[in-house]
Amino acid sequence: MKTTYFKHIITGIFLLFCMGLHAQIATETLYCENRINPLGLDNVQPKFTWVLSSKKRDKEQSAYQIQVSTAPNFSKTVWDSKKVTSNSSVRVAYQGAELQSLQIYYWRIKVWDENGKASKWSETQHWQMGVLHETDWKANWITVGYKEDAMRESPAFRKEVSIPKTIKHATAIITSHGMYEGFINGEKIGDAYLTPGWTSYNKRLQYQVYDVTKMLHEGKNALGALLGSGWYRSPLAWGDNTDNFGSDISLLFQINITYTDGSTAVIGTDSTWKNQKSEIVNSEIYNGEIIDTRKSLGAWKTVGYNDAQWFPSTQENIGFSNLVATYNEPITKHETFTPIKMLTTPEGDTVIDFGQNLVGWVQAEVEGKVGDSLIIDHAEVLDKNGNFYTANLRAAKAEDVYVLNGKGKQHFEPHFTWQGFRYIRIKGNLKNLSKDNFKAVTLYSNMRNTGSFQTSNALLNQLQHNIQWGQRGNFLDVPTDCPQRDERLGWTGDAQVFSATAAYNMHVDNFFSKWMKDVAADQMKNGSVPHVIPNVLNPTDGGSTGWADVSTIVPWNMYVLYGNKTILKDQYTSMKAWVDYMKNQSHDDLWNTGFHFGDWLFYRPDDDTDGRAAITDKYLIAQCFYAHSTQLLINTAKVLGKTDDVKQYTTLLERIKKAFVNEYMTPNGRLVSGSQTAYVLALKFDMLPEELRAQAAKRLAENIKSYNYHLTTGFLGTPYLCAVLSKFGYHDLAYTLLMQQNYPSWLYPVTVGATTIWERWDGRKPDGSFQTPAMNSFNHYAYGAIGDWMYTTLAGINTSSKEGEIGYKKIILTPHFDNSYVSDDVKKQNKEEPLTEVNGSLDTYYGKLVSHWAKSANKITYQVTIPVNTTAEIHLPVIDSKQITEDGKSVEKQKGIQIQTLAKETILTVGSGNYTFTF
Ligand code: BGC
Q1: Closest alpha carbon to 126 in 223, 225, 32, 29
Q2: Could you give the 3-state DSSP secondary structure of residue 458?
């Protein structure tokens, strides 16, 4: 009897304890400068972000405490924030003692919930500082000791070093002119490729920091590096444009060691390092790589190798002033694809199909006689006869050539190049190859996947897949236009139109923060922004509307979507310089001068007898973007408290809009260009007087109807088309456009088997023929900018853009549950009913946000997950809140849900947690 009584008490205490645990908030993922345990930061005030979790609803943080120490057991504290009453959990800045070069810091966090209940200390995290002072560089820049020939073979560098004592910690810091791979005792250092990445090298050259403690040991060690021409000196752009940043190929490699006895040592490149031409006979970005393994240097990466025939290295006086730490995620390998098919084309080529247009390289495992060769060509598509098609790669050879050494099974993959392809053609004299000899591996910046978007419609899901693959293929340290032809450049226009969509699919905060610094670095003295960044085109070419506006649009997007105020501070001068450039080019507030790409690749029928080509006056576009950039500058000035600028540019903006109305609009509100893009931009950027906006939207809708429910927009109009329609009461028309399957449309490429977004609406025509090979990429993300609208409008995932609420601190959910076709044609094309389900999610800095709705004959179920420490405003198209239930009960009876009833909707305001609404 007594024991049962006791048992009850113990169970009771245990239950209370468990409830207590659940009531708490726990720390989940922790980020330092938005990355997990980053190595090599040169920001002396890093920022911390922590994701919280709880099984309960309405959980908030009321206070936090951060501790930072140079010892993992927190005995040597350099900062203890103590308990800070604050609900901030994103980008909390370090405020402790001065941070030291290359020092490792450990940090942890404790939080208190809204009831003052404390969490446990989080798991200990760490970061390592980069090289903070030029004098910390002890290594010397070195280059080869022989005269390079025209092939520019990739040099190998080596040095054996004796390590006298037991190592406690060792850090390698490496960069190069060209690309590098570093090695210690035969092993590659780190998992990054194409390092040091691409920046405007002469102004900003990134180095990488690696923990190599486990790779070194007491006694003899072999250090090595391979270099390739890379972006530094491979031909880029057109017309044999080599040596864009210099002609030397150089290495800077330093290892800082701390021994267990507390003493330290530094090993670095100098003239005692030896070098020799490697088996990589030639390596260029567009053309590919040639490896002749008959020329193998043998075991040069390991101790005991005889390098008597190698050359001493030449020290170079390059300096260290342009060196910067790596801020974004490095390029790493991701998915591996095995071939889906090996085939012989009508022309007799042996071709392998990987089933996905991807970016990376092929790995081949083959065996043959000495001197046998394996040649791999890359292509995105087969032509209508099923032949291997490379004309659209223009001058890019995109070919990897391997020569065998006859010594058994050999593994081949390139080092300093990459290609965009779905198909490969196998040439050379190897017999009996099968598809099992080949794999394809993708390469892209190692950004976290953050978003998912799935619906009841298979074509739409494939469109989302294509958008994501366009991003994977073109976010390779810089945002490139395309990954395959002789271009692969950081085109500014493409990047700005896609930046918001990109921020849904993946974590691009650091990626864009890094690249925008190069935008600022390459910006011209007069404020003009080059067409491509890093700029490898004519240094004075730039200032095109919609392209150069990357300087204002991307920072603002990163601010709103990630709560990143730092990018606004960092880019403010650049943003302002761009707006001032436009101002200086204008006469009477009208910017109608200079070269512009315009609404690039807008709809142009072949035989345009009827004037159906959707041409938009380029200066009309310029005036719209002039206003938009000025508006974003004003917004930024407000955030940064620059009141004088707010005043000055607000006056300017009024004048810009007035000049627009005077020049481009009739008194009745008709625009001089009647195109979709003209109306879309004018409406999106508030260029028209309020009272004329509704009828402008009507004209836009009529225009779309006149093309039988097709879009006609190019790069600049497309990103905003559906958003403008939804905003001005034409949501069903936007939906119809999205579901249009005939050219021009988003789904047309999907219906003919696209696995990425195409550069042109008709890259492959319905008769199977191609657009001009002069410009026909099958992996160009720009038109994928529709992804933004799919997430914000169909799934309804939005953040408030108000200061203090940005970056999903306050979530606004506005899904469109009702989507219908306004065209019978489009209805017929789509065999299924309009969407019955949309499931969107986004990993925010606060945690995972879910917006998932499903529709049956008479009921909508809407399931949302709101992260801890945020609130959400949920907009439901229901007038009577009594019709809404949550978790089976009337929403009015649920505690903690605030209800606001408006004329056309009910707004529910909720705290964190999982909710299931039905109505
Ligand atoms: C690129 C584009 C780019 C354009 C400029 C093209 O060659 O591939 O995407 O924006 O030039 O209009």
Answers
A1: 32
A2: helix
- Give the Cα separation of 755 and 461 in Å (integer): 11
Minimum CA distance residue for ligand 1 atom 12: 597
| 781 Cβ closer than 6 Å to some ligand 1 atom | no
Q: Which atom of ligand 1 is nearest to the CA of 600?
A: 12
Distance CA 605, CA 597 (A): 19
- Could you tell me if the CB of 602 is within 6 A of ligand 1? no
Tokens 């951060």 correspond to 66
- Report the residue count for the chain: 919
Q: What is the whole-number distance in angstroms between the Cα of residue 738 and the centre of ligand 1?
A: 24
| Average pLDDT across the chain, whole number | 96
Contact status, residue 763 vs residue 380, Cβ threshold 8 Å:
no
205-211 and 323-325 beta bridge pairing: parallel
Determine if ligand 1 sits within 6 Å of the CB of residue 160: no
Q: Does the pLDDT at position 169 exceed 50?
A: yes
Largest CA distance in the chain: 99
Ligand 1, residue 494: give the atom nearest the CA. Answer: 10
pLDDT at residue 7, rounded to an integer:
55
Cis peptide preceding 815, ω within 30 of 0: no
Per-residue pLDDT, 10: 52
Annotated catalytic, 187? no
State pLDDT tens for residues 257-287.
999 999 999 999 999 999 999 999 999 999 9
What's the rounded Cα separation, in Å, for the pair 286 and 731?
Answer: 43
Q: Mark whether 690 is an active-site residue.
A: no
3-state SS class at 907: strand
Query: What percent of the chain is predicted at pLDDT more than 70?
Result: 97
**pLDDT at residue 19 is higher than 90:** no
- Three-state SS across 56-124? CCCCCEEEEEEEEECCCCCCCEEEECCCEECCCCCCEECCCCCCCCCCEEEEEEEEEECCCCECCCCCC
Place of tokens 């080509």: 613
Among candidate residues 279, 289, 399, 487, the one labeled active-site is: 487
Residue 730 near residue 736, CB atoms below 8 Å: no
Atom of ligand 1 nearest to the CA of 493: 10
Please name which of 459, 389, 385 lies closest in space to residue 422, comparing C-alpha atoms: 389
- Residue 27, judged by CB atoms within 10 A of its CB (0-12, 13-18, 19+), counts as buried
CA dihedral 92, 98, 102, 105 (to 10 degrees): -50
Ligand 1 centroid, distance to 521 Cα (angstroms): 21
**Annotated catalytic residue within 399, 759, 805, 873:** 759
pLDDT at position 668: 87
Question: Whose Cα sits closest to atom 4 in ligand 1?
Answer: 491
* Confidence grade of residue 23 (pLDDT, cut at 50, 70, 90): low
Q: What is the pLDDT of residues 451-474, one digit of tens each?
A: 999 999 999 999 999 999 999 999
Q: Partners of 266 in the beta sheet?
A: 256
CA distances from 832 to 1, 457, 458, 685, 857 (A): 66, 8, 10, 36, 14
Residues 247, 233 contacting (CB under 8 angstroms): yes
Question: How far does residue 491's CA lie from ligand 1's centre (Å)?
Answer: 7
Distance 374 CA to ligand 1 centre (A): 34
Matching residue, tokens 């010594």: 407
- Residues 418-438 have pLDDT tens digits of 999 999 999 999 999 999 999
Q: Judge if the beta carbon of residue 487 lies within 6 A of ligand 1.
A: yes
Prediction pTM value:
0.96
What is the pLDDT confidence band of residue 17, given thresholds at 50, 70 and 90?
very low
Is residue 805 predicted with pLDDT exceeding 60?
yes
95-128 tens-digit pLDDT: 999 999 999 999 999 999 999 999 999 999 999 9
User: Given this model, what pLDDT does residue 212 score?
Assistant: 98
Categorize the per-residue pLDDT at 6 as very low, low, confident or very high, splitting at 50, 70 and 90: low
Sign of the CA dihedral running 171, 173, 179, 183? negative
